[in-house]
Specification:
By secondary structure, this protein is of the alpha/beta class. It has a single domain, classed as 3-Layer(aba) Sandwich (Rossmann fold). Helix content is 36%, strand content 25%. The strands form 3 sheets. It has a 6-stranded mixed sheet, sandwiched between helices. A 3-stranded mixed sheet has the order 8-7-9. Strand 5, helix 4 and strand 6 form a beta-alpha-beta unit. The chain is globular, with a radius of gyration of 16 Å. This is DUF938 domain-containing protein. InterPro entries: DUF938 (IPR010342), SAM-dependent_MTases_sf (IPR029063). Pfam families: DUF938.
Length: 208
């Protein structure tokens, strides 16, 4: 059994530990049908390690910003899962850094509220570089609906985020879905998750 804890994992995230099983349960039907995955904002690598230790057929490409890649790769090396590639540096706003490879699925957890809105827009603009026809995009995290928070705890979280970094914040689902539709993604599921989070799943159809 893979043991991932605070003692053997740099940048260990308790929230990843809490949400990894429920995310895997919801994504299992899709993950079972795909092989290549790009994760945006892998951070500690806990999701990659958990998912890939359960699903050996996956070929997982972690990524993160320059300042986080060294610790991320150290975690992957320590836990040594064969079907996880070394992490790559990825600034979502830089078209040059996006891999040339196409993936069956792109996954990102708890990232959109950390990025600036401009970075969110640029991420969606760059996503088609890495999407196959019929690829999936799966994003986990908190969202607002019709401008309203789904809980008082999310409203308090928003205050914490903006005190930490004024350009961050919980995003409006409608605006995110509009960005997705503009690049050819169709929403398949919007799943309510524990701790007032959502799991959004889109499918890509290249109309070109």
């Amino acid at each position: 059994m893979l043991l991932i804890n605070e003692e053997n994992t740099l940048n260990y995230s308790p929230s990843c530990e809490r949400n990894q099983d429920v995310i895997l349960k919801q994504l299992l039907p899709i993950l079972s049908s795909v092989s290549s995955v790009l994760e945006i904002g892998s951070y500690s690598g806990q999701h990659a390690l958990h998912f890939c230790s359960s699903l050996s057929h996956l070929n997982w490409q972690p990524s993160d910003q320059h300042s986080l890649v060294a610790n991320l790769n150290e975690n992957l090396h320590r836990h040594n899962i064969d079907n996880i590639k070394p992490a790559i540096e990825l600034d979502v706003s830089d078209p040059v850094q996006w891999p040339e490879t196409k993936f069956d699925l792109i996954f990102s957890a708890n990232t959109l509220h950390i990025m600036s809105w401009q970075h969110v827009v640029e991420m969606f603009n760059n996503l088609p570089k890495c999407l196959n026809n019929q690829s999936y995009l799966c994003i986990y995290g908190p969202f607002k609906y019709n401008g309203q928070y789904t809980s008082s705890s999310n409203a308090n979280f928003q205050l914490w985020l903006q005190n930490r970094d004024p350009v961050s914040g919980i995003r409006d689902f409608e605006k995110i879905n509009e960005l997705a539709e503009d690049i050819g993604l169709t929403l398949l599921q919007d799943i309510a998750m524990p701790a007032n989070n959502q799991l959004l799943i889109w499918k890509y159809e290249n109309v070109c």
